[in-house]
Design brief:
Two copies of one chain form a homodimer. The first copy, chain A, starts with 5 loop residues before the first helix and ends in an 11-residue tail after the last strand. Chain A contains seven helices and twelve strands. Chain A is globular and about 70 Å long. Chain A is of the alpha/beta class. Chain A has two domains: 6-74, Winged helix-like DNA-binding domain superfamily/Winged helix DNA-binding domain (Arc Repressor Mutant, subunit A); 78-272, Rossmann fold (3-Layer(aba) Sandwich), CATH 3.40.50. The interface between A and B is large, with 58 and 58 residues.
């Protein structure tokens, strides 16, 4: 068997660790793969851990014992988070987004895999210390955000549907009232898509009064799920909030249809007492 | 400014290149970041390129000239592709998937970010040699697959909706007839979500007669888009096919509701003359 040089090992290990965040890789797997003593592997891991830490992009977490190993926990620092929030705000302020009726076009933002990855990283960083069993969203626009977050947390995604489809099997359904438009909407989630008692992170693209999130929380209660956090990309002011505990990245304060000006500011993330590195 | 050691540079460069596939990074950016001569950077890149190539996970592509740089093109080899197809087939053959009416439950597979990443890698590998401007799918189940693929290709995603929503602005709509059920369905795509003349990759979770894909192709024609390829995760036999040119990873040949047996085989990928490393 070919013995690997340290330089080659560092490249390969970095790749394996980074490609699947939160996945535990036993030290023995590396030792065998590279035909090297575990002590050399430990030194390699120290180097990788050091570089990742210095760059503020994450840490290597070592789990001791027979079932142990090492895993990459991605992190994003405050500065980069602020950069992403600023970029999001700048893009939201573009008057070309204004649609008839005062709606905002968001699909380009939600179609950009690079920005989505950054947002997923921010949310995964906020909840890196919690055990999350699944990321939950409601179709359609929340789905890319949910996947971006789940990829960083290495958890499955469960998607709440607005109708109940024959391809979902047995579903649990509730009717929820939209907070702003007072319309009744149906939310359903396949029974088998979420284990009872799961610890979940709710993710969505937009929140006004919070009726959609409230509906998700109520539906998740039927699964005895514990909602660990609620992450919304954009919020907009509402007279009455149906959800109090959430984090947002941007706030659309006002859309002036006449002057075509959109007033955008940072979401509540930094006011929530969230600690960054 | 701190001078980086080669070992630290290799870790950091591997991370930067792998995290954003297909993104061109100028050599000068690296030289500046590490306070090192471009010749050293070239040596580093040779090491990284060598390791990635030996492991069959991709190549570093160098673009010469003033606007040049280096980018990571992910690749997956035939062996690993076969492994993913086998895993998919095994999971599809689980009789617990059978739903009333002979439908198959797929949401757990489409909720698994690790498997999705592998599928995205396979499809990105197939079309790595083509310029792809956007990955297109139809809501809801195709969305995670589209993002997994777009992430590897570094392209935006455009999502065709089954209704037309006020939050999409001006849309192009067509009516399509489902190939198997003969139902008429509406497909709509926001005008601004796809530039005229884009080269697109169509991605979907399931195809029988191909009515959905046909509908997507017809709608994309309204955008003068060029369909470079059609990728479906699972296909199922149909008397008449409305789409001939596609690649699939698995075929559900038969579902026997009485014996609860699902006959699954490989999709057409390897019979399409696709060349792997």
């Amino acid at each position: 068997m070919k013995k690997w040089r340290r330089s080659a090992r560092l490249v390969d290990m970095t790749r394996l660790l980074i490609q699947e965040p939160h996945k535990l890789i036993p030290l023995g797997t590396f030792a065998e793969r590279y035909g090297t003593a575990k002590s050399s592997i430990s030194e390699d891991l120290d180097i990788i851990h050091g570089v990742l830490g210095e760059q503020g992009v994450g840490v290597l977490e070592t789990v001791a014992g027979a079932a142990g190993g090492v895993r990459f926990i991605p992190r994003v620092g405050r500065e980069r988070t602020e950069g992403v929030m600023r970029e999001l705000c700048d893009r939201l302020a573009d008057p070309d987004r204004i649609l008839p009726g005062g709606y905002l076009y968001l699909s380009d933002i939600l179609g950009d895999p690079v920005l989505l990855r950054e947002i997923g990283l921010i949310w995964a960083t906020l909840f890196a210390g919690e055990r999350i069993d699944a990321v939950v969203t409601v179709e359609t626009k929340g789905i890319p955000l949910a996947y971006a977050t789940a990829t960083q947390l290495n958890t499955p995604v469960a998607i709440i549907r607005r109708d109940s489809r024959v391809t979902e099997g047995s579903v649990v359904t509730i009717n929820a009232v939209s907070g702003s438009s007072r319309l009744i909407r149906t939310f359903s989630l396949a029974r088998r898509s979420l284990k009872e008692g799961s610890r979940v992170l709710i993710v969505d693209d937009f929140m006004k009064a919070g009726g959609t999130v409230r509906g998700m929380v109520d539906l998740l209660a039927e699964f005895r799920a514990e909602v660990i956090g609620v992450c919304v990309m954009v919020e907009s002011p509402a007279r009455e909030r149906l959800v109090e505990d959430y984090v947002s990245l941007a706030t659309v304060d006002n859309i002036d249809l006449k002057s075509r000006k959109i007033a955008v500011s940072f979401g509540n993330l930094f006011t929530k007492g969230v600690e960054f590195q």
